[in-house]
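quick q for whoever's on today - can somebody do inverse folding on this one?? i tried earlier but teh output was garbage lol. tokens:
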């Protein structure tokens, strides 16, 4: 018995909300760009296949991993510039194997499609050849795949309304066949391993230290000492891998922590001053300025939106 297809649209007003938008994924989003966050996740569920479309209006740093046992065809929209594991994205898309974590820094405006299938439905896939990440650039027609998926998403609501059973039967089989052909083609080739850059390795180590720090602010000098590298090497690595200095990254991380606290009712009742100080901001005027510049609202406005 086949499940009837479904189509849903969810809007999000904060990066910490949208990180839960792709169900079953292990994700953490931190807003990097300035602006009032607006994001959407559109989901088309076809039983054997799920297709997600995600949009973001500001730059976001993501740590993301699909569910184990899944294979995801990731198709960024044309002209979307982002960094994946510290390297600027090139090509029309890539395969992302379930359970494998990557780090992404998106551009200011981002749109992408995620075609998710069970690995068992792709017998021609050889992960020894493709590795956990594999560019689809060599596949004939790779540059048209994003528009192919976009057209299916645009016709889905009407197709489901008119003939849901046929739509839910024919389309998933067609998508599985197409992606299976892609996987078989890529598995027949030798690929240059998508290894991480030295800059990304440095940033990855630094982020573990930053995220493990539970009290008080961390300076760039302290961060460099914690990972046993000179400060100038750490600065250079951050700029190469994520496009901003470690000083700004540290501040954005603390702003993200403060905002997450303000969005939780039990934490929001502490008030702006206590939350700011708990996250290493001891000059409240400066904290309010940084916060407003990043999120385009005052800290007190965030708290009032949660507890009134």
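ok took a stab at it. sequence:
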């Amino acid at each position: 018995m086949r499940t009837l297809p479904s189509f849903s649209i969810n809007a999000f007003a904060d990066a910490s909300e949208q990180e839960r938008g792709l169900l079953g994924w292990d994700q953490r989003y931190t807003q990097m760009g300035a602006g009032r966050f607006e994001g959407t996740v559109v989901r088309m569920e076809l039983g054997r296949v799920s297709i997600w479309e995600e949009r973001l209006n500001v730059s976001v740093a993501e740590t993301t991993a699909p569910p184990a046992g899944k294979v995801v065809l990731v198709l960024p929209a044309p002209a979307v510039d982002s960094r994946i594991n510290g390297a600027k994205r090139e090509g029309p898309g890539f395969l992302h194997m379930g359970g494998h974590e990557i780090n992404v820094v998106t551009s200011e405006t981002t749109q992408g499609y995620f075609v998710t299938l069970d690995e068992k439905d792709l017998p021609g896939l050889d992960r020894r050849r493709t590795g956990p990440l594999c560019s689809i650039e060599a596949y004939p027609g790779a540059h048209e795949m994003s528009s192919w998926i976009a057209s299916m998403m645009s016709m889905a609501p009407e197709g489901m309304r008119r003939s849901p059973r046929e739509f839910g039967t024919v389309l998933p089989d067609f998508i599985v066949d197409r992606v299976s052909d892609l996987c078989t083609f890529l598995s027949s080739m030798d690929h240059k391993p998508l290894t991480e850059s030295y800059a990304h390795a440095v940033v990855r180590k630094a982020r573990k230290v930053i995220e493990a720090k539970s009290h008080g602010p961390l300076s760039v000098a302290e961060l460099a000492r914690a990972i046993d590298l000179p400060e100038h090497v750490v600065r250079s690595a951050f700029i190469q891998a994520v496009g901003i200095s470690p000083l700004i990254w540290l501040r954005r991380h603390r702003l993200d922590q403060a905002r997450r606290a303000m969005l939780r009712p039990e934490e929001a009742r502490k008030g702006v001053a206590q939350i700011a100080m708990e996250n290493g901001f001891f000059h409240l005027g400066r904290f309010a300025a940084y916060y407003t510049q990043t999120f385009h609202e005052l800290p007190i406005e965030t708290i009032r939106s949660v507890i009134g």
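fwiw The CA atoms of residues 265 and 306 lie 6 Å apart. also The domain at 6-187 is CATH 2.60.120.10 (Jelly Rolls). so keep that in mind when u check it
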